[in-house]
Amino acid sequence: MSCLDREMIVGGGTVSLRALCHLVHRAADLITVAGAHEIVVKGRADYATRVDLGIQTFLRTELAHMYPQVQFLGEERHEQDADLGRPCWVVDPIDGTTNLIHDYRFSAISLALLDGGEPVMAVVFQPFSGEMFTACLGCGAFLGDRALSVAKDRELSESLVAVGTSPYDREPADVDRNFAVLRSVFDHCADIRRSGSATLDMAWVAAGRVDAYCENNVKLWDYAAAKLLITEAGGIMVDYQGRPIAHQMNTGVIAGSASVVQALLNLKAPHLK
């Protein structure tokens, strides 16, 4: 059986991974240069474009038609009123909006299905490279038809660590704490990377392209799909205190192999303890 042929019974209905991938491909057709330049400023360094809004509307409408038994939660338009104890879609229509605005070409559409508060199916699509990351609970994580595995048996000193700068947290004390963590990570690893898309960074952890990911303030729609990718690829995801992450709307995230995550937790930098 192809990984895309996986199906799950959720909320009394059958959800098809292949159908979700096809839907996300269709959503990506809404990405246009003109749409990326119609910008809504939501806050400091926090933007939405016509592309974000259009993709979220498209996915909400199509998913409601295909799976009316499942709730919807999305980043845009304050569509976050959902009971996460019941089946729910969690959507980030464009993770990496600032990248999209600048034609940086490193953004993703992220779609997760939560059941009982935990992700059970995930699709992350990078429209500029055409890479489709998928996962089903208990069935593994895949890039296309290739099974994924996090990088293992590597010391932190040899590791490439993706980081986020939590750009919405611009209070001086928050910035100082955040960059103290990043400095400590940099001092102890081989090198760090900052891409501007938390979802893709975590998908790359699942693919073994980077060894770990850490960021102080990550939203549910950024990590929901990526969490399943990572855990199905043999990794773990915890908060900055080392606690398992359920379905918090905001959380710190450290993800990777168990050994590298523990090494990052042991750095004792501000906010890591």
UniProtKB/TrEMBL annotation:
Name of the protein this chain belongs to: Inositol-1-monophosphatase
Source species: Bifidobacterium samirii
Catalyzed reactions per annotation: a myo-inositol phosphate + H2O = myo-inositol + phosphate
Family statement: Belongs to the inositol monophosphatase superfamily.
Binding site for Mg(2+): 75, 92, 94-95, 222
Listed cofactors: Mg(2+)
E.C. designation(s): 3.1.3.25
Protein's UniProt keywords contain Transferase: no
GO terms under biological process: inositol metabolic process; phosphatidylinositol phosphate biosynthetic process; signal transduction
InterPro entries: IMPase, Inositol_monophosphatase-like, Inositol_monophosphatase_CS
